[in-house]
Write a structure and sequence with these properties.
Strand content: 5-15%
Number of strands: 8
CATH architecture of the largest domain: 4-Layer Sandwich
CATH class of the largest domain: Alpha Beta
Distance between the termini: 29 Å
Structural class: alpha/beta
CATH superfamily of the largest domain: Ribonuclease Z/Hydroxyacylglutathione hydrolase-like
Number of helices: 8
Largest sheet: 6 strands, mixed
CATH topology of the largest domain: Metallo-beta-lactamase, Chain A
């Protein structure tokens, strides 16, 4: 994978760096942390920030940092150690397990989903994912898209609610939304239960977040 080698930041052990480490982060991270500083003045801010790519060298070790847009959070980075063929991406992939509730409470679902494909462009042998021990995100996406595009009988699903709440648009939408999410959750669970750890535990919450994204983000 091509990585822009500029800017390059070189660190050395010992001296002031040993007791006062240099914090490197994406510019979005600095912006977010700075907004919290008035309420949490002890929270350290990054000393060095970048926008796209950044290479860190410590002695003969190299770590490549790259940003591919917001996913779990704005500023969430891909990290790659080329010599060791190790990639790191936190709060996106949950090896062997379904994601945490509401797709890991991610802020931007299209970016979070796309991050899986970006990760596969790295040439790695080891992935450091940050949590637990593989929900097929494409399958969840397709199941939810199918659910909200004719995947169930809408009239039958919301008829009783409409009859009981005439003119109440929120009640109608909630009834529709609940059935759409449950339809997606049931379909996904039926295919992944027993394959992924806890595939059923957050099935509804993950389907809920995906349906919201399909409605709002596309």
């Amino acid at each position: 994978m091509y990585m822009d080698s500029r800017p390059i930041y070189s660190l050395s052990y010992g001296g002031s760096n040993a007791s006062h480490p240099t914090i490197i982060a994406h510019a979005e991270t600095l912006s977010l942390l700075a907004s919290l500083s008035p309420h949490d003045p002890l929270r350290p801010l990054p000393h060095v920030t970048f926008e796209d790519n950044y290479t860190v060298r410590v002695g003969n070790q190299t770590l490549e940092l790259s940003y591919h847009g917001p996913n779990h959070t704005p500023g969430n980075l891909f990290m790659y150690a080329p010599a060791q063929r190790v990639a790191l991406l936190i709060d996106v992939v949950f090896p062997g397990w379904a994601p945490f509730s509401e797709l890991a409470i991610s802020g931007f679902i299209p970016g979070w989903t796309a991050a899986h494909d970006v990760l596969l462009t790295f040439d790695f042998d080891v992935l450091v994912a940050g949590h637990v021990g593989r929900l097929d995100i494409e399958d969840l996406h397709d199941s939810c898209a199918s659910a909200i595009n004719g995947g169930f009988d809408v009239t039958a699903a919301i008829g009783p609610t409409v009859a009981a709440n005439p003119g109440n648009a929120w009640a109608e939408f909630k009834a529709y939304f609940r059935v759409a999410v449950q339809t997606c959750a049931d379909n996904t669970t039926s295919r992944w239960l027993g394959v992924l750890g806890a595939a059923d535990v957050f099935a509804f919450e993950n389907a809920y977040r995906m349906v919201i994204s399909l409605i709002e983000d596309v």
